[in-house]
Amino acid sequence: xxxxxxxxxxxxxxxxxxxxxxxxxxxxxxxxxxxxxxxxxxxxxxxxxxxxxxxxxxxxxxxxxxxxxxxxxxxxxxxxxxxxxxxxxxxxxxxxxxxxxxxxxxxxxxxxxxxxxxxxxxxxxxxxxxxxxxxxxxxxxxxxxxxxxxxxxxxxxxxxxxxxxxxxxxxxxxxxxxxxxxxxxxxxxxxxxxxxxxxxxxxxxxxxxxxxxxxxxxxxxxxxxxxxxxxxxxxxxxxxxxxxxxxxxxxxxxxxxxxxxxxxxxxxxxxxxxxxxxxxxxxxxxxxxxxxxxxxxxxxxxxxxxxxxxxxxxxxxxxxxxxxxxxxxxxxxxxxxxxxxxxxxxxxxxxxxxxxxxxxxxxxxxxxxxxxxxxxxxxxxxxxx
Length: 385
Ligand SMILES: *Cc1c(COP(=O)(O)O)cnc(C)c1O
Prior knowledge:
Layout: H1 19-22, H2 33-40, E1 48-49, H3 61-70, H4 83-93, E2 100-103, H5 106-117, E3 123-127, H6 133-140, E4 144-148, H7 157-162, E5 168-174, H8 186-195, E6 201-205, E7 230-235, E8 248-252, H9 254-263, H10 271-281, H11 284-307, E9 319-323, H12 333-342, E10 345-346, E11 348-349, E12 358-362, H13 366-382
C-alpha cells in the first residue's frame, strides 16, 4: 500500500512556479539615460535624469580613489564578512560589529529580512504609498501584505499598529518615505516601538537619513539597546553617491543579524563596493556638500513649482512629488511625463504607488533643476487635446 500520488506538476515550467511569484508586479525603475538617448537620438549629455534619487554631485573623490586602488585585486573574491567596512561602520555608529549586516544595496537587506522572517501564512504591514520593495519582498516569500491607508501621504503609525494581526511579523517603515518624502518625527517612532509587540520585526528604512534638516534630525541607533525587534537600514546609494555599486547595511540585534547572515549570499557585497563605502564614510565633507546642494535644490524646485501654480508634498528626502493638475477629470501625469521625455528630461511617474496625479522629481544640480522646470512649464503650456 502506498500513499496516493501527489498530482504531477504542470508540464510548462512557468506554470509550475508558485502562484505568488507569477502575481508579482515587477519593480519599475527610473528610465536610464542611455535608453532615452537611443529612443530619441539625443546625446546622453543632453539628457537630464531626475528619476532615481541619485546624488547629482556624483561620488566622493575619496571613494573613487579607493575604487581605482582596488582594481588590481578584482580576480579575488571579496571579504565575505566585510571586515573593513563593518569596523568603520561600528566606529561611526558606536555599535559592535555583530550588530551590522551588509547588503548589496539596502534593498538586499530588506530581502534578507523577508527571507528570514516571512513566508506562507505570515504577513508584513506597510503603508500605502510606501517604498515598492516592501510589497515585492513580501510577495516573493509567499507572505501576505497588509497595506495601511496613509495620513496626508505619510505613515499613520496608530493605524499600522492596529492593522497587526496574528500572522503579522514584520512592519516596514520608510523614514523619510519614498516617493512621498514624508517624515515621522523621531519621538513618535520611539513611542511606536514601545507599543509594538516584541515578536514583530520593525524595519526602519532610513535611506534618506543624511538629508534630514537639523530641526528634524533624530538618532535611532540608541533604540537598538531596548528593542531587539528593531532593524535600522541605511544605504550608500543616496547621500554617499554610490548607487551603481550597490551597498547598504542593517543595524540590529546580534541574533537578528545572525539570522540575516544565514540567508544572504556569501559574497553579497562586491570588493569595489566594500572599499568605496568605507572611503565614502570617511568623507564627511562630501556628505555635507550633498546635504547643502539638496537643501538649495529643494528650494529651487519648490519655488519653480510655486511659480507654475503646482502643489507638492513637502519632502524630507532628495526628491519631491509634484501634483499635476487634472484635465477634464482625468490624470495628466503620464502624458506630462512623456512630454518631459521628449524634452530630454526624465522624472518618475508614481501611479504604481497609488499616486496617479503626481510625478516624483529628484533634486539635481541648479542647471538640471532649471531644465526640468523649463520643460515642465513648456509641457504644461502644450496642453495636448
Ligand atoms: C533608494 C531607497 C533605498 C535604497 O536602495 P539601495 O538598494 O540601497 O540602493 C531603500 N529604501 C528606500 C525607501 C529608498 O528610496
